[in-house]
Amino acid sequence: MSIQTFDDTRHLTGENGEFLGNSFAHSKTFSMATPFLTTSTTLSLSLSTHLHRLSSSLSSTCFPFKPNLHRVPRNPSLLASYGNPHLLFNHEDHHSTYKSLLSTRVLGPKSNFLQMGPSETSCSREILVKSSASDSSNTVISTLSQKVFGVLHLVVSLGIVLAMDKFLKQAFVAAAIKFPSALFGMFCIFSVLVILDTTIPAAATSLTNFFEPALMFIQRWLPLFYVPALVVLPLSVRDIPAASGLKICFIIAGGWLASLCVAGFTAIAIRKIVKTEMVDAEPMAKPSSFAPIEFWTWGGIFLASFVSAIFYPTALGTTARTCLPFLLASTVLGYMVGSGLPSAVKKVLHPIICCALSADLAAVAFGYISQSGVDAVLGDYLTKVSSNPGAGDILMGFLGSVILSFAFSMFKQRKLVKRHAAEIFISIILSSLFSLYSTALVGRLVGLEPSLTVSILPRCITVALALSIVSLFEGANSSLTAAAVVVTGLIGANFVQATLDKLRFRDPIARGIATASSAHGLGTAALSANEPETLPFCAIAYGLTGIFGSLFCSVPVIRQSLLAIVG
């Protein structure tokens, strides 16, 4: 092969005169027939040709320059270094040197070809900056819109649940129906969801998803709505003699444990008899934990409203309204602090207890500083007057909505409810009968006054139904009934989880039924806060225990037998 050189361009030809390509050097002519030169030249020409094609393609799309591969101006310093062909081909690093020469001469000493990173052009950087700024702005707008939509979704869904509860209450009052309207609504909602799931499954799913924000809000604050009865408990038990009070506490504490065991062990026994295999419950979402900003916000509300109420006791018209902000804030803060306690501590000091203690301490402090007395402050906490509500009235206003929300939890576990229907219903029926008759029997054995024993018969039934039950008995004390129900729930809320663990109740069905059958709403709120999967079974037991208890006491034969045992 011979190499004919001209001023700036080499024309390379083969042994038969065929044209091989162009290269670049100064004006010289030489020939070389070594295999190495032939191979190197062929590789370099192939590389040059491919680079030319690739560069031409890329330069039209993303590079601001267009390299000239046909004629490159001479570079004196380059010629000085590589002008000797023997130096070019005979050096021990001849291959790397030739590649360096080709890269430098073809692409230029400072070419940006196929380079990334620091050598980007200013145009590319400007485009990237604008694109990043645009993406960041779009992300912020999207996040903000999602938050606004989430708040609106919560307000609308929760508002519908509250409106539904209010409508049912008004309808039941107008019809003179004494049965709790919320329980009726819970079973109606559950029935509607089951029917929709059978006929139009997509509609049932959409309806459940729509109310999900409201359900999570209620579940997050569930124990808080049962606290007002505990806060004002000192006002309910003041007129009870000490000796009778001790007997009542013994009956309530021992009766709670006995009812829990009967309900739990019955459920497990029935399951074994009918040979129903236990399957895992559907996973239930847990509400989010409390953020520091929430704690500081409620703390600020408490301090500001507490100081304001001391200097201006009727700033909002009445003392109940003026005390409402700091009493509500103290209740919420107590629940937040209790929820943040270690798990081992919460098993013996439940957040519900911390919540009630916090509100009572705030009432004691305000009563002492303002010299109005703690009884007056507790009276303002729960007025039971819609035109002059206290903090407790606001919280208890959610109880109906809480019961309605149980329908959605039951629906989510409908397959498990259907599968274990036998053990659920039988255990609840037996537990309800046991609670009524055991209370009457132990009351007589310990020598408790018959009127007081009758008053605490429905100790395991929610307050609304318990009050309607004792109205069927002459001489009953409704205030004592409410206090007994609250104390039962208090004991259950504080000790139910540890007791269930000791008794080795592992599955959510047995745990849920045992809890709600023995400690009604307070126990349900306490257990479901840590174990959301038990909530559907707590809700079923919570409702059915009250319904069956009311039905049993409505039967004259059962009512007369209870009175005979009481004496």
UniProtKB/TrEMBL annotation:
The chain crosses the membrane at residues 171-196, 216-236, 248-270, 290-312, 324-341, 394-412, 424-446, 452-473, 480-500, 539-558. Its main location: membrane. This is Plastidal glycolate/glycerate translocator 1, chloroplastic. Pfam families: LrgB (PF04172). GO terms for cellular component: membrane. It is found in: Membrane. Keywords: Membrane, Transmembrane, Transmembrane helix. It is a multi-pass membrane protein. It comes from Gossypium tomentosum (Hawaiian cotton).
